[in-house]
Amino acid sequence: MSRPVGLISALPAEFSYFEDFVDSSPVVREAGWEFRNGVLEDIPLVIVEAGMGKVQTAVVATLLIQQFGCGGLIFSGVAGGLSPDLAIGDAVVATRVIQHDYGALVADGFVRYHPGVLPVPGIPTDHGYALDADVVDTLKSTLHGFRLPRLPGHLPIEDRQPTVNFGTILTGDQFVNSEEARNRLFGETGALAVEMEGGAMAQVAERLGVPWLVLRTLSDLAGVDSHIDFNVFTSAVASGAAALVREVLPVIVAKSDEGEPAKQ
Ligand code: ADE
Question: Are 18 and 85 a contacting pair, CB within 8 Å?
């Protein structure tokens, strides 16, 4: 049997969709988190609601790999949309994740660097963790023709079929609630969405040599109304991210079974 896949969400509304997968195995409590065993289509899972932000996610990701023996990690949850082409309910499958708040504050603004490097002039400013091209290709073919669930009719939003998109997701310890910040982040990076955990999980996974995926559906558009939209839409749109998990689990299991050596 393959090693289990670690499945992380930040919030109860995101996590609730996975409770159906949980079997009767005892819950293991560690450092204040509850790690539950589950099985989905014969794939063993360890499921945890980690809370928000990069540090909590990094600790949970480390425990999942080192203590619970997970061979791959998936983050499933909601994000704020950055691209003007996307709407609430649309999904973004990360092909790259960038920690947008790691870097240097300088006289004329902020210079972004790769997490862990010394953020000073002369050090390369390329950043982010990217999926291997073969994984992106497999994800695209796996999800070809997949339709996300439509949002419930009572929600205050146009009834349309949500789309599945592939691209960069930003991660930072900041909830983006500003039109100016949204436009700046999109202009600087071209990222499709912003959240608060995925880049931290990817950093741990890369460091410890296991594959990772970040799957997000848009609860808001990171602008002036994002705090309102987040409350209205999170619970409904999170079901789309959970539906994506079911589809792509075999992709991460296959990558994990390749048993790649640890990257630095
Ligand atoms: N997660 C969901 N919406 C978000 C936002 N606007 N900023 C950061 N993380 C988010």
Answer: no
